[in-house]
Amino acid sequence: MLDVPGARLYHEIRGAGPVLLLIPGGPMDAGGFTPLAEQLEDRYTVVTYDCRGNSRSPHQGPVEELTVELFAEDARRLLEAVASEPAFVLGSSGGALYSLDLVARHPEAVRALVAHEPPASSLLPDADRWRALNLEVGELSRTGGTFAAIERFGAETGLGGGSAPDDPTPEEQEAGARMMGNLDLFAGQLIPVVGNYEPDVEALRAGGTPIAIGRRRGVDGRAGPRAERPRAGRGTRHRTRPVPR
Question: How far apart are the first and last CA of the chain?
Answer without folding.
Answer: 28
